[in-house]
Amino acid sequence: MVDQKSGGVELQQTLADEKKLDVVDLTSDKEHNPTPDGEEPTEYEKQTLQHIPENLPFSAWLVAAVELSERFTYYGMNGLFQNYIQRPYDGSLGRGALGMGRQGATGLVTFFQFWCYVTPIFGAIVADQFLGKYMAIFWFCLVYIAGLLILLLTSIPVALENGAGLGGFIVAIIIIGIGTGGIKSNVAPLIADQYTRKKMAIKTDNKGQRVIVDPALTIQRIYMIFYACINIGSLSLLATPYMERDVGFWSAYLLALCVFITGTAVLVLGRKFYVVRPPKGSIITDAFKAIFIMVKNRNMDAPKPSYQAEYYGTQTVPWDDHFVDELKRALVACQVFAFYPIYWVVYGQFSGNFVSQAGQMEGHGIPNDLMQNFDPISIIVFIPILDRIVYPILQKLHIPFRPISRITLGFIVASLAMMYAAIVQHLIYSAGPCYEHPHCDASLVDGVKLGNKVHIGIQTPAYVFIGISEIFASVSGLEYAYTKAPPSMKSFVQAMYLLTNAFGAAIGEALIPAAYDPAILWMFVGLCVASFLSGVIFWFTFHKLNDREEAMNALDYHEQEELEAHRQMSQSDEKRWS
Known about the structure:
Elements: H1 4-32, H2 43-48, E1 51-52, H3 58-78, H4 81-86, H5 101-118, H6 120-131, H7 133-153, H8 157-161, H9 165-193, E2 201-204, E3 210-213, H10 215-233, H11 240-246, H12 249-269, H13 283-297, H14 305-312, H15 321-335, H16 340-348, H17 353-358, E4 361-362, H18 374-396, H19 403-429, E5 444-445, E6 448-449, E7 452-455, H20 460-483, H21 490-510, H22 520-542, H23 549-577
Parallel strand pairs: 1-3, 4-7
Antiparallel strand pairs: 2-3, 5-6
């Protein structure tokens, strides 16, 4: 009689040996029978061949141009708001307008940032339920233009002299916030919609080497180029501070308006080139209703019609089970964004407190709000280096640098920016003539209060660190929001990602009482520690998602295959019945 235990061991050993033989045969087979160009690679080829991105379609460049013009306008005006609100109007060019002081200026600038990142929810609803992404962007452009006109007309000297400045400014930023929010929630998914490949494919490159065209890397490239265009647009701050100083705030706002009208014209004239997808009904509102049911019942399957029919004997919801499964997937993607508000608090310092900090130093003819340009300049410099040199080298060496890793690094680099800002603030407080109270009476020269004796250029690395952190954290966030969202919820997840910026602005608003000298130094230190700890906790919480990256990215393709098959079956049934 054969011993069952030893027989079981022998059987397991035999199966293991056969498995090894299968692996050897598979490897040998793939070496002699490579997958033809254009077809999907095997698992063996995915592990051994280099992955590369594709070039962007022309329509994607058009979308990027529209975003460039919008960001030119946004940063060109927003970068002046701190001076516009903080300093009083005295009839001199570029000295100020509303005279609300540092805390008042920081409060209104932070509110504007908050508002601009709440309104994308409204923009996503309009696009998904009524107009589609393209038409929503067009109509929100017109809203944006209306807000810019109000800002321009109430910033001319005669309007400021007659007290129209503050009321006009508040109305303008509310309208502009609606416009920019409606654009932002739709332009990011629209640019990725222009790229239609959903699965990997084998390709032979110009050097005769077999490589894999990877849609995930192409989406990564799309958002890096998209972000580079954003920051090229933000270089409007190279011009508008001088226009503010030498002509007046109104001239800078006029330039912003003209460029935005040009971008809107590009949007309209390029209409026939875009991949435009129609609205999909009440996706966003249904999503919020379903989330409410989940929370109320403490069960993520509770909104499913099948669940309600089983437990309640009836179903009263307008969606199907597949919609709830998609929503669950979207919520899993949104968990990653939970740490972003801390990052956005740090990011928000560069257009607010960093501007005020620059004004506390010796300018040497450089406007204090001009220094912000080192943020986009650093992004424009480092994006090509990463996209064309660093990332391809990592791919060749088969070293993965996936979104969770990049986001973590973004948080760490952002903490370095705040650490450096704290060091600069310490140097300011250590220098005369005013030490811990910059712009005291001792700094008056020809009736103008000058900064302490620290060169304004020393602030540059703080902006560079912020810029590098954006490439890793912000770009990867846009990419993650698009690739992990189900096909029917791209705008919804993008709006959720943008909403984290609003939460960051709200936290920044709560920190305004600390935005005074000399307490602000310790605010910078606190943000440094918070950003670093957030990055560490983020890594330990989500690093396992890196291993699931490829499988999660493939969900879109498989879901679309299923939906297409279902659509064809429905059409076949309709023909049969007719």
